[in-house]
TrEMBL record:
<dbReference type="GO" id="GO:0006098">
    <property type="term" value="P:pentose-phosphate shunt"/>
</dbReference>
<dbReference type="GO" id="GO:0005975">
    <property type="term" value="P:carbohydrate metabolic process"/>
</dbReference>
<dbReference type="InterPro" id="IPR006148">
    <property type="entry name" value="Glc/Gal-6P_isomerase"/>
</dbReference>
<comment type="function">
    <text>Hydrolysis of 6-phosphogluconolactone to 6-phosphogluconate.</text>
</comment>
<dbReference type="Pfam" id="PF01182">
    <property type="entry name" value="Glucosamine_iso"/>
</dbReference>
<dbReference type="InterPro" id="IPR005900">
    <property type="entry name" value="6-phosphogluconolactonase_DevB"/>
</dbReference>
<dbReference type="InterPro" id="IPR039104">
    <property type="entry name" value="6PGL"/>
</dbReference>
<keyword id="KW-0378">Hydrolase</keyword>
<comment type="pathway">
    <text>Carbohydrate degradation; pentose phosphate pathway; D-ribulose 5-phosphate from D-glucose 6-phosphate (oxidative stage): step 2/3.</text>
</comment>
<protein>
    <recommendedName>
        <fullName>6-phosphogluconolactonase</fullName>
        <ecNumber>3.1.1.31</ecNumber>
    </recommendedName>
</protein>
<dbReference type="GO" id="GO:0017057">
    <property type="term" value="F:6-phosphogluconolactonase activity"/>
</dbReference>
<feature type="domain" description="Glucosamine/galactosamine-6-phosphate isomerase">
    <location>
        <begin position="5"/>
        <end position="216"/>
    </location>
</feature>
<comment type="similarity">
    <text>Belongs to the glucosamine/galactosamine-6-phosphate isomerase family. 6-phosphogluconolactonase subfamily.</text>
</comment>
<dbReference type="InterPro" id="IPR037171">
    <property type="entry name" value="NagB/RpiA_transferase-like"/>
</dbReference>
Amino acid sequence: MRTFPDREALASALAEEVAEALRNAIGDGGEATLAVSGGSTPKLFFHALSKAELDWESVTVTLVDERWVPDTEERSNARLVQEHLLWNEAARARFVPLFIDANSPEGALPEVQQRVADLSGPLTVAVLGMGDDGHTASFFPGGDRLEDAIDPTGKALVLPMRAKAAIEPRITLTLPVLLAAKKLVLHVEGEAKKRVLDEALAGDDPLQMPIRAVIRNAREPLEVAWAP
Ligand SMILES: O=C(O)[C@H](O)[C@@H](O)[C@H](O)[C@H](O)COP(=O)(O)O
C-alpha cells in the first residue's frame, strides 16, 4: 500500500501514473482503455487526470460498474465521469457507458456485453474503489450474481447485480476483466477504509468481503493507493 500525505497528493500522483500508462499503451498500439469507478472517492483524481496532456482521442473511458439509472440522475456513475473527468484535456476521450435505456440490467445484458467485447483488448488501466462492507466494483456481499461475477475462470465480461446495499440494480465488469487490466489500482481514502482493508487481508472468504477476490487473484500484488 502506498500512503500519501493527503488526498490531493494521492489524486495528482495517481493521475500522473494513469496518464503515463495510457501514453505507453497509445505508443505501443495506438489505443488505450481506462475503466474507472463511481462513488465519491474518485472526484479529485478525475479532476487531476482531466488535465493530463496525452492523446485523449486514442483513449476510451468506461466504467468498472454502473448503477441502473439514466445519466440525468445524481447517482449515475456516467454522469459523475462526464462532469468530473471528461472535461479539460480529457473532453477529447471517447466514453462507453454501461447503462442503456432499458428497464433492467438483465434485459440489457447482451447489448452491454457487446459494448465491452468491442473495447480493444484488455483494459489498459482499471481503478477500483472499495465500500465499507468490502465491496468493489458491484461485487456486493449478498449480491445475487456475486459468485459468478468473482469467478476468476468465468467467461462473462459483465453481469447484472442486485444487492440490498447497492440500492439500485447494477451492472458490473466481472473479475476476469478487471484482473486482465495491465494496471489495476485500488484507490481508498480514510481510516475507516484502511481498517476494512486490514480486515479483508486478515480473512479468506471473498463472499463476505469481495475485495478479497481481487486481492487473492491479482496477477501481481494489488497496488493500493491510500490517503487519510
Ligand atoms: O458505483 C459505485 O458505487 C462503485 O463503483 C463502487 O464500487 C465504489 O467504488 C465504492 O462503493 C466506493 O465508493 P465511495 O468512493 O463512494 O466510498
